[in-house]
């Protein structure tokens, strides 16, 4: 097995461990079924007394079989590994750890964030924990609806079931945990929005570009553009900087051309020279 593959499996293991901690410490003990297979397993745990990890594994088996028949081996061994190891961690940790809080709000916040960070790490290393992902793709195949809508349907059904089994208040906490999980997954996968991108439109583009390269030590890309109102062709500058450099960039542009048009937006992830390096 190549070094990259070992690193992927190590990342998937770490991610499933974090996810399992979120379930064991916060979500399951406080009856917060935050969607997906883990949420359904939480409901079944309180109705029948079944262990959450084993229940997740059993629920995933028919989904895997259907996925293999309909979708093929596109998920591969990493999904199988992620699903099994998450189930193992969940039931093993439940034997030793106890919930640090009985407050449903705190549990939904910390449980949702921990689960999201863990799943984000799993996804970042090319893995999956099956369940909701497979169900959404099966919805897409048989019902011809998007995967995003499929995920929403699965989670809505589970949270609705939690509301009927427990109470509406716990269902609302589950919805909060689900939202936080989704946001945490995005933050881990996309890098958390630590950089800014600027588009600069000015009659002094060459001077501004030179000053940015000299004073900020940042690369600048020139894009061809045309003003539809004036019909004039102009060069549009694209530059990506750290958040701490935004004020210097704006002051630099204003000193050269106070009439320049500048658009500054968030960038979730930047790979390359001067920023995060590509993973080897």
UniProtKB/TrEMBL annotation:
Residues 218-272 form the DUF2179 domain. It comes from the Bacteria. The keyword Transmembrane applies. The chain crosses the membrane at residues 7-28, 48-68, 80-99, 105-123, 135-153. The lineage of its organism: Bacteria, Bacillati, Bacillota, Clostridia, Neomoorellales. GO terms for cellular component: plasma membrane. It is a multi-pass membrane protein. Keywords: Cell membrane, Membrane, Transmembrane, Transmembrane helix. It is found in: Cell membrane. This is DUF2179 domain-containing protein.
């Amino acid at each position: 097995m190549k070094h990259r593959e070992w690193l992927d499996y190590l990342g998937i293991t770490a991610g499933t461990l974090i996810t399992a901690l979120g379930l064991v410490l916060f979500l399951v003990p406080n009856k917060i079924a935050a969607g997906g297979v883990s949420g359904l397993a939480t409901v079944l745990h309180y109705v029948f007394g079944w262990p959450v990890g084993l229940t997740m594994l059993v629920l995933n088996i028919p989904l895997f079989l259907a996925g293999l028949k309909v979708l093929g081996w596109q998920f591969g061994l990493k999904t199988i590994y992620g699903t099994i190891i998450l189930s193992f961690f969940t039931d093993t940790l439940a034997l030793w750890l106890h919930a640090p809080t009985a407050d449903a709000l705190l549990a939904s916040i910390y449980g949702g964030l921990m689960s999201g960070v863990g799943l984000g790490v799993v996804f970042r290393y090319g893995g999956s924990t099956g369940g909701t992902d497979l169900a959404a793709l099966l919805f897409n195949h048989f019902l011809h609806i998007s995967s995003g809508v499929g995920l929403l349907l699965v989670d809505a059904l589970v949270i609705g079931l939690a509301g009927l089994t427990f109470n509406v208040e716990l269902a609302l906490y589950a919805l909060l945990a689900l939202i936080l999980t989704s946001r945490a997954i995005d933050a881990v996968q996309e890098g958390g929005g630590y950089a800014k991108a600027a588009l600069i439109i000015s009659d002094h583009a060459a001077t501004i570009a030179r000053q940015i390269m000299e004073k900020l030590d940042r690369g600048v890309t020139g894009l061809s553009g045309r003003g539809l109102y004036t019909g004039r062709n102009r060069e549009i500058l694209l530059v990506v900087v750290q958040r701490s450099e935004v004020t210097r960039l704006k002051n630099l542009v204003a000193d050269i051309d106070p009439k320049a048009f500048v658009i500054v937006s968030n960038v979730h992830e930047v790979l390359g020279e001067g920023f995060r390096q590509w993973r080897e």
